[in-house]
């Protein structure tokens, strides 16, 4: 069984940076796409960024384009989200997600495309 574990969240001032990590623990076996989602209090879970197994394929929500960068190290079964120029509206619980069985270059952007989820890591941006 595979488990996803996020780390790297915290409190940062507006304009600051954070780097989130997501480690896939267990027998990962086959290839899998990964993504980041976030959920603020009283709001729906929303897509932030996604990356295919072949890390040349990525996608981002419009709200984070140019500020966030998703990447992965398959040899370490780890995915990252570098978040720069953070804004108060980025405050949310950030979730890591994984999906086995997609094409090597396929990026999944909908929550229902994912079948593995982490517990979340809190990101709070103060103004």
Give a description of the structure:
With 127 residues, the chain is an all-beta fold. The chain is 0% helix and 50% strand. The chain has strands spanning 3-7, 10-13, 18-25, 32-39, 46-51, 58-60, 68-73, 78-83, 92-100, 116-117, 121-126. The strands form 2 sheets. Strands 2, 4, 5, 6, 9, 10 and 11 form a 7-stranded mixed sheet that branches. Strands 1-3-8-7 form a 4-stranded antiparallel sheet, with no helix packed on it. The radius of gyration is 14 Å and the shape is globular. The relative contact order is 0.32. The mean pLDDT is 95.
Task: Describe the structure using short key phrases.
127 residues; mainly beta; 7-stranded mixed beta sheet; 4-stranded antiparallel beta sheet; 11 strands
SSE arrangement, N to C: EEEEEEEEEEE
Radius of gyration (CA) equals 14 Å
Q: Averaging pLDDT over every residue, what do you get?
A: 95
Shape designation: globular
Computed structural class: mainly beta
Number of E-state strands:
11
Q: Give the termini distance in whole angstroms.
A: 41 Å
Poorly predicted runs of 5 or more residues = none
The helix tally amounts to 0
Percent strand equals: over 45%
Query: In this structure, how is the largest beta sheet organized?
Result: 7 strands, mixed
Helix content bin: under 10%
What is this entry, summarized?
With 127 residues, this protein is mainly beta. It has strands at 3-7, 10-13, 18-25, 32-39, 46-51, 58-60, 68-73, 78-83, 92-100, 116-117, 121-126. The strands form two sheets. Strands 2, 4, 5, 6, 9, 10 and 11 form a seven-stranded mixed sheet that branches. A four-stranded antiparallel sheet has the order 1-3-8-7, with no helix packed on it.
């Amino acid at each position: 069984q595979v488990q996803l574990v996020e780390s790297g969240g915290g409190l940062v001032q507006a304009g600051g940076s954070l780097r989130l990590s997501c480690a896939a623990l267990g027998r990962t076996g086959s290839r899998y796409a990964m993504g980041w989602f976030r959920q603020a209090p009283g709001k729906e879970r929303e897509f932030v960024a996604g990356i295919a197994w072949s890390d040349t394929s990525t996608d981002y929500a419009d709200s984070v384009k140019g500020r966030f960068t998703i990447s992965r190290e398959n040899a370490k079964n780890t995915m990252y989200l570098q978040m720069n120029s953070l804004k108060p509206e980025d405050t949310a619980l950030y979730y890591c997600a994984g999906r086995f069985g997609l094409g090597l270059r396929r990026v999944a952007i909908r929550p229902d495309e994912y079948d593995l989820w982490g517990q979340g890591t809190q990101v709070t941006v103060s103004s």
